[in-house]
Sequence to fold (557 residues):
Amino acid sequence: MAILIIAELDKQGLGAECAKVVGAATQLGQEIHVLVAGSDVAEAAGQAAQLAGVTKVLLADHECYSHQLAESMADLVVELAGGYSHILAAASAKGKDTLPRVAALLDVAQHSDVIAIESEDTFVRPIYAGNALATVQSLDAVKVATIRTSAFDAAASQAPVEVEAVDSVKETRLSQFIGEELVQSERPELGAARVVISGGRGLGSGENFALIEALADKLGGAIGASRAAVDAGYVANDLQVGQTGKIVAPELYIAVGISGAIQHLAGMKESKVIVAINKDPDAPIFQVADYGLEADLFDAIPKLTELL
Amino acid sequence: MKILVPIKRVVDPYVKVRVAADESAVELANLKMAINPFCEIAVEEAVRLKEKGQADEIIAVSIGPKVAQEQLRTAMALGADRGILVEHDEELAPISVAKVLKAIIEKEKPDLVLFGKQSIDGDNNQTAQMTAALTGMGQATFASGIEVEGDQVTVAREIDGGIQTLSVKLPAVVSADLRLNEPRYASLPNIMKAKRKPLETVSVADFELQLGAHQRVLKVTAPAERSGGIMVGSVEELVEKLKNEAKVV
Fold:
């Protein structure tokens, strides 16, 4: 038996999540095949072929996969599913969109946001916004799971393996791509950054996020936000860290003007070092912070930026 | 247009849960329960479509214990026209929930099935996608904007790098994200009126479904506690600690 990983693509080619999912899959000690489906994606397939542990890349290059919409992707994966014991993808917006559809078509359960693999059929995943961890044994023949990428190391590189073309066209016509508005950013991607600086309601306005930006640029970090800051319109919603936004686990997480609601903690409490800067000494964020500073952020952040 | 809104009874999102001492589950006895917040957003969106004249009937459906009636009444107080409770005491895996919903959909034939994107207890984010798969419908998950035009629904979706817009043929499955709308509060007169709206109770056994055992929860544990941190007195001290103690900058 082997493992099938569904690769995600971005503008540069293969998405950064894929190396993490391959890293997780290597713990299962089986052959690893990566499916690269899209339109004009030979380059991404070449990148997948160089991830350590991958034994074969399947390349489905057709216009019907150009935006990796769930309906055609799921049909393609189900057609290829015979012979695989595990089907994995990253627990990203795309993985979460597609994999449950695959699982239902195969009549098996899906395991979401897996943070540890205990054996080939037993996985650990957070529930209740990360306030509990469930160890779940799958009773299905095929295990379908999304992988929380912040919990696994990326695969290293290797000499490229074989890329095999898959000649399959799944046009469902159920849904159609209309457009996309992507946020332009020069900073590292939130999910992969070594340092994340997040702002909350305490910033008071979108303009004041410039303070966070200056600090992020100094540290080469990414910017995050609490739900309150997103709802108030200070920043775009794809910067939200939390149960309903992105889950991050950087080496350093600096929470500025964030009280620390459980929904926010669910998205960042696995960070290696947490720093909280808040003027309310009773803010719950101080309970998870390694270093807490009770101060007005408008004084502390410029000073911190200057001293670093 | 007929809209079906599946809702779930979950622990109130502001309650901090504890793991049971025998590590079998999360302690839920005597905790405040509520409609899952994402389901509430789905109900609100259905009501707004009805107010725009684009929907004529909203059916709220829930699969759960008898007390889940409370959440169906809340949905009806918010504007759903009637409720269906599929009584079942054990927690079902999303694949089984999707099979039950498929049976309801075949009976009610809605044009749009509006879900919340995930429930805040299991955090699975699967049921909408699975229901779409089993019924052969198209899907638009994580919706932050919904426009119905003719036999299509145009949905703005929250994706990792921004917003993506899809057009899906009706009947379709859409799942609501946080920013789709701001749910209204139920007014007292509407809470009273909701008590007289029809609520049908059925049981999973009525549908002759094969709900296989797909998974077994071996244990539920509390996550590792973070070791206690320290408060620093100044920005200078913070920088010093980050450089020399934590060595992260």
